[in-house]
Design brief:
globular; Immunoglobulin-like; mainly beta; five-stranded antiparallel β-sheet; five-stranded mixed β-sheet
Length: about 120
């Protein structure tokens, strides 16, 4: 599992067994914000499985100020720590289907910038 690193931020996956970051276009570098390349793939899951993943967001320039999601089934949240910002993304396990494809967003510096991340469960390239 590779972490996502750009000139302005880094995403370090702290629970790689629960989710893996991928680029939808692996041959291209993820260079900025609002690109639809970034995926958090939670792998194969059933309604009985835990669908929670954690990662660390680090940046000298940007700070997460709020989060959002495409629907109520996905709940992103964050905590400030000395090491960076610890992000938790939860998906309601009871709503897991054969092909989950949802969005969540990290809003940075009071919505000056945002990072949109595609959450996948039971889906592949």
């Amino acid at each position: 599992m590779e972490n996502i690193k750009t000139e302005t931020f880094e995403i370090l996956n702290t629970t790689p067994t629960m989710g893996e970051f991928k680029l939808t276009k692996p041959e291209e570098e993820y260079t900025g914000f609002d690109k639809n390349y970034l995926i958090l793939d939670m792998g194969e899951k059933t309604k009985q499985d835990i669908a929670t993943c954690n990662f660390m967001f680090k940046s000298d320039t940007y700070k997460i100020t709020s989060t959002g999601a495409s629907c109520g089934c996905t709940n992103p949240s964050f905590q400030n720590t000395e090491e960076g910002q610890f992000v938790t993304v939860q998906f309601k396990s009871s709503l897991i289907t054969k092909n989950v494809d949802k969005w969540f967003t990290l809003y940075l510096n009071n919505s000056e910038k945002k990072i949109k991340i595609n959450l996948w469960i039971n889906k592949s390239f």
